[in-house]
Amino acid sequence: MKKVLLFVALVATIGFASCTNKQAEAEKARLDSLAEVARLDSIAAVEQAKADSIAAAAAAADTLAQPAEKVEVK
Fold this sequence. Notes:
This protein is an all-alpha fold. It is built from 1 helix and no strands. It is rod-shaped. The termini are far apart.
């Protein structure tokens, strides 16, 4: 009887150990996925900032290139 109980306890321990490992792997995969999404969001934000900066520089260059209005003196 002791051997049967010891065997059941051993099987239960191995079962818990394997489930815990799978849960840890799943949690690590989830965290890695979230980190990748955050990295891609950061890259997108930098690209958007560069595009906005280029657009602002182009708009400023357009304003500088416009000829001054003629002022008539009467």
